[in-house]
Amino acid sequence: MTTRTLVLLAHPSLDRSRINAALAGEVQDLENVTLHDIYAAYPDQVIDVAAEQQLVRDHDVIVFQFPFHWYSIPGFLKQWLDEVMLRDFAYDAGPLLQGKTLQLVTSTGGVEDAYRPGGFHRFTMTELLSPLEQTAHRMGLTFADPLVLHDVRGTSDEELSLHAKRYRELLASYA
């Protein structure tokens, strides 16, 4: 059986993004990967819920690719969760999402060491991402270890290229 991966790309201004644009470019041609830029698909932010639910049904791995802003996901990705992952579809619906995986791919402006107890941000990325881990658990999804790129402003082109290749390898490993 072939594993199909849905990448929900959620960047409010991808045309100005060095990091997320490079990551998306690295995986867009992977076999069995659907790259779905929700901001481009819905510029008016009116979501076709039925179409999005069908995408979820059709894929085994759901990737949220987003910049980590203000300790959270972008607002439109939150709206997508609220409108698409409804009761009796995503939870309390039986085994629909059982066996599927949620993979987070995110980037931060802060250096890795800032995300620790006593550090500038006071909490680890694991702690800050725990609401999404709980969301996955509530929906019956397996929560994969997040792929995080820290210090985006200090990331060299070579480091970005290596990280993008790790991302590609991660998605290819699901197949």
Which ranges are low-confidence, i.e. pLDDT below 50, for 5 or more consecutive residues?
none
Q: How many helical elements?
A: 7
Mean pLDDT: 95
Strand elements, count? 6
Estimate the global geometry from the Cα principal axes. globular
Main sheet? 6 strands, parallel
How far do the termini sit from each other? 9 Å
The class by helix and strand makeup works out as alpha/beta
SSE order, as H and E? EHEHHEHEHHEEH
* Quaternary status: single chain
Task: Tell me what portion of residues adopts beta-strand conformation.
Answer: 15-25%
Helix content: 25-40%
Task: List key phrases describing it.
alpha/beta; single chain; 7 helices; 6-stranded parallel sheet
Task: Write a compact overview of the structure shown.
The chain is α/β, with parallel strands linked by helices and 175 residues long.
Helix and strand arrangement:
Elements (H helix, E strand, L loop, with lengths): L4 E5 L9 H9 L5 E5 H4 L7 H10 L2 E7 L7 H10 L16 E7 L17 H4 L1 H10 L2 E2 L3 E3 L7 H18 L1
Helix pairs in contact: 1-7
Provide an overview of this structure.
- The protein has about 180 residues and is of the alpha/beta class.
- Helix content is about 35%, strand content about 15%.
- Strands 1, 2, 3, 4, 5 and 6 form a six-stranded parallel beta sheet that branches.
- Strand 3, helix 4 and strand 4 (about 100-105) form a beta-alpha-beta unit.
- It is globular.
